[in-house]
Design a protein that fits this description.
- By secondary structure, the protein is α/β, with parallel strands linked by helices.
- The chain has a domain at 77-256: 3-Layer(aba) Sandwich (Uracil-DNA Glycosylase, subunit E).
- It has helices at 22-31, 35-42, 49-60, 99-102, 110-121, 159-176, 187-200, 238-243, 248-256, and strands spanning 87-91, 142-146, 182-186, 217-221, 227-233.
- The radius of gyration is 17 Å and the shape is globular.
- The protein is built from 9 helices and 5 strands.
- Helix 1 packs parallel to helix 6 (159-176).
- It has a 5-stranded mixed beta sheet, sandwiched between helices.
- It binds iron/sulfur cluster.
- Iron/sulfur cluster is lined by residues 25, 42, 45-48, 51-52, 76, 148-150, 161, 164-165.
Length: 258
Amino acid sequence: MPPGTGWPGDPAGPQTPVARTPAQVVRLARAAGSVRDLDAAITVCRACPRLVQWRETVATTGRRASFADQPYWGRPAAGFGPAGAPVLVVGLAPAANGANRTGRMFTGDRSGDWIYAALHRGGYATRATSEHAGDGLELQGIRIVSAVRCAPPQNKPTTVEKATCAPWLHRELELAAPVLRSILALGSIGWDATLRTVREMGWTVPRPKPRFGHGAQAGLLTPDGRAVRLVGSYHVSQQNTFTGKLTEQMLDAVIAVL
Ligand code: SF4
């Protein structure tokens, strides 16, 4: 879906600058003066050739049969939720037929059914369901981002792809930092990406490195001395929710401490 062609919530337009190399990701992430600018730049990024090809192939010739008649977003997913939210959720990456189809984090797939129902129970979401980008769902006091912004094959980004995408998360955290109270990391990749990023930003992180686990917590300190709580949760993937590794009660418990 080309930028600025009417997709609900599309933050980019035809003039939005496009990052085509890792160096350009660094430059454009640093230059983003607001969450809106950051969202726009992320959603037109083309810096990872393998992921660009995968997301666009899924969006054109590789659609799931049940969505074959629908247009796909086929671009990186911007963060979802208000700028200036005191809570940030850091996930792994969009799903090929989820956010890569709908253009909104955790929207249109089973993972979204879980996370938004839990956020609704916790008072952070206006609805318990998230079906498409124009469904009216709004978040309050929370914003959802991911360590990698393009859908990867088998949900497995490479080390190079994670590093290439890292500056977007870095800028996201810089913009959020002045009002941030807590961060919910979904899965170990979100946990590790968050710790690596805040260390780069000069935050104080406990040593040895806090270990990821469901319900794990780590106290982080910003350079100006504000405490931010990092909380771990098993990812809301079907692999975890279908098998009972992650239950609704477990998810509600970690959201309650944010
Ligand atoms: S994964 Fe990140 S850096 Fe790579 S193309 Fe997508 S948005 Fe750009």
